[in-house]
What does this fold into?
Amino acid sequence: MILATPCSDNPVTEMKLRNHVHLMFFVFGFLFPGEDLGADDEGGVVIKKFRLTAPGNGGPGFTLLDNRTLQVNFENKLDQAAWLNNQNLLNGSGVALGDFDRDGHCDIYLCSLSGSNRLYRNLGGWRFSDATSSHVACQGVYSTGAGFADLNGDGWLDLLVLAMGSQNRVFINDGRGGFNEPRILEGNNPRTSGSTGFAIGDIDGDSDPDLYILNYGFKSILKDGGAISVNKINGRDIVTGRYANKIRIIDGQLHEFGEEDDILINDGNGSFQVKKWGSLVVGDIDGDFPYRDQGLSVALRDLNGDMAPEIVVANDGHPDRFFVNDGRGLFQTYSSHQIRHLSYNSMGLDFADVNRDSVDDLVVVEMMATGRVMKITQDKNSFPKEEYIANRNPDARPQSGRNMLYLGRGDMTFSEVAYMMGLAASDWSWSTVFLDVDLDGFEDLLVTNGFQYDTDDWDTQTRLGRLNLNPLQRKKSVLLYPKLDTPNQAFRNLAGKSFVGMGREWGFDSMIGGYGMACGDLDNDGDLDLVVNNLNSGVSIYRNDCSSPRLAIQLKGHGGNTSGTGARLVVEGHEVTQSQEMISGGRYMSSDQAIRVFAAKGDSTHRVTVRWRSGQVSILKQLEPGYRYLISHPPGPPSVAPVVRPVPKAGIFRQTRVEHDRKWSIPIVAQLQPGLPFDVRRMDPSVLVMDIDGESGLDLLISEGEKGIAVFLADDNGGFNPGLHHPWPSAGLVAGGPDLKGHVLALTRPPRLLKWSGGDLITGQELKYPGEPRSAVFLDYDSDGDSDLFVGGGSLPGRYPIASRSALFENRSGTFVLLQSQLELFSHLSLVTDVASGDMDGDGTEDLVVAQEWGSIRVFLNRDGVFEDSTKVMGLNQYSGLWQCAHLADVNGDGRKDIVAGNFGNNTVYATYPLPVRLAYLDLQGRETVGALEFHYDKGLGDWFPARKYSVATAVFPTMIHRIPTSRRYASMNMEQILGDQFRISKHREINFLTSVIFLNEGDTFSVQVLPDKIQVSPVFGVCSGDFNGDKNEDLFIAQNFFGVPEKFSRYDSGQGSIILGIKGGLSKVLEAESSGIRLLGEQRSPVSVDFNGDGQLDIVLAERGSGIVLLENNSLK
It folds into this structure.
């Protein structure tokens, strides 16, 4: 028996379902009667179940079926003359799946760019017949997108067909196994718009399906050889003439715009009214509005739990768009605080709860190569930087040429993690679908691939760039690019932690060139099969061979929303709780069958919750695997009760800023050393908290990098008064030891010891340190009661990664003297980013812990005033990373100091090729700068190959272009061949580990505890600790993010500043922003924990590059 247990909370409708027939269904009922599980006469959930056919007995994956056996004779042909005249046609076409004749079998409709579209009736048993009528064939039309959906609420699936250069059409189902003559949709201008993708959903909450249609543009002016007129107006180059409204010059590049998309509201009878954008979007609008983008995919999905669909648009060469629905069809745009950065040429998108945290996540696919050689030979040269690439502006949303995977945090913000999850690259991608291929409860990812020519090939771009092509030649120049053959991709979801490629193993690695893809159960076995519309090849139909238990669900919705589009399905009873939303359209030019499939346990029953678009909720119990269930919306009107959202709780901290507009310049040094993977002369802002003037309250000293040092003196009202500014460029500030109260070491060149006198900072001593100081710490190394000093070396401008020598200074009666006897010990250190002192071995003396870039965390134990390098003995030498900080804290409460070590994390470009990575460098006589270039190790070939593009390598070594004239040749060469004769005099530094960790002190060695994934999403640049929530356990605050990366990379901005709570014996969890009260979007630096207001609770102060000083006031006990 299937139960829906009673619940008194309105608007949930639940009741016990009795075994009597209650005919409220239209699907399958008259031809395929199933077991009908009805409801009582008071109204309630009606459910009908159908036994699935036997699944395959093989492992997970697909079999590509023979179209001749299927009797599906379709090929989407596009001859060269046609696409050379209109290269937008190379975006391909889609497919629609659905049971249009209600015979219980899922049918197929395929779009064609020449000839006719085809409709295939599914006869069962993997046999199809051609059911194409003359009008649904759309003969002579460039058909792009298609979808089956009941648009007039009569229970029969209608057909939507989009086109390039023609009007969009709706074919209403005649209820007799065919379609009426088409209705022409309003909105698009058939001469210019060129519709591509679409999504269907109840946008305005009136229980009928509305449409969102993308209008890419019929013809490309730039690709199709349009003649552009450019004139200089007020000193700027401006496009004039007939294309002035379509082409804009951005950062020296011609940038083409598309057409406005259409939102069409259903009148309830399948007729649609176009809504003007100005009447739909309220609040702040970014950029030019209404937007004229070039959209390829759109999704309507509820992302905030109010059941009203948001709009997400994937745009080709334009920013992706995100609109929040107010529940009644009015929208606001997402802010840059919610989505931090974007793909550049976005193609397909899809949503799924990939890590099963009950929050939907989003993938957007682009065109980044997966292969080692093609990663080098492909290079985009069309990134406009002025408006679209703004890595260093925390309020901007820069774009980059790779896939994005956005993990939802549950508060309408997202953390982008494609690098970390193994999904940054999938080749020249079009359609993407989340589908649980192996039915393990976690949705995997499928991607179709292919294009005629590799138009990102750097060598061809360079060769063509030297030619003065006329418009006709420019149009035909695409034929000069190499052919592009890339396989479809399949990625297995490893329990929400990462994805691994499985295309070959799962039989989804065809290199035919797939575009639109849709899912449907073509054999009624309860798993989803695939249909892919290929260009210039036959259609690909894949049978899903998984044999694991499954549960399939279809819906009968309220009113005109007969398929229940927009309903949220939650299934419990498997090892993990699964959730999916019922969708219509939203694929790349395609539309799935309206069915959702869930992994099931073969020996148990399952609980299903349906949250309907209307606001009603149905809960059903004891659903068995091996069936398809048809669930009906409860009778009665939709709920009018407002959506109840949880009231935000007060976080531990209240976030304020000492200075809102304190913005520090960010020096760009790539011009000095263009081969470096990130900006290395990072004179980051740093904060020092101390009572510098000897009066009441704690003051702030701010090192502002190149701008110098600022002082903020505490006032009597809990605020700060800005003091004098000192123009001493400084890499940081360090408070003096116990005997040096009121003293500060400034990491200037040379370092200077400052003290407060007469209401100002004055220099007490300049240290005789000849190099570039990067970090320092005071410690009493010789146990004589005064503070000595260790200075860690960085690199001089243009000299990276050559480190200045680190040094120990002895305090001799208040004067710091360089200790020559220990220079050799520290001479082998790499770039020292941080240093800490503490008793690491319990002998009562202060030891040194050093964090290195391109090196390991080093531990120097103090042996009666003489330091000994114990790094190897204590097991730390094997972890060579880009370490940014080393904070000492007793994390597990065992009385020993552990090392919280901040590294670059697992969500950077380094995740796209295997570690180790070497930075090879040449310090040649006569050159002011060091030439440096990265190489990665290919384990299969046992050699080192370039990690950076050819354009970067030739900028580092300009003469190399004569010896290695092409990118393709460069990509095939190893490090020795690329460096040539200079290889023997080159040096290198190496990294093999980028994870941020805690090195737990075991006495004579260290064990490794990896910090949570929410920390690994971004580089860690600082840590402070203390009992922040009053439970007497040591908690951690983690400062994150780094924007100083090359413009073609995504900046590393997925951190918000994180609190990790401590428990007895260790750490528990990372607090969500709502609980911590911390949402910091910029580059966080130099956190300090201190009780600012004397209330007995630890507060936190830190610098946020580009945004000022942040004060986190602790409210945990208030």
Residues 129 and 618 are 38 Å apart (CA to CA). The chain has a mean pLDDT of 90. The first strand starts at residue 12 and ends at 13.
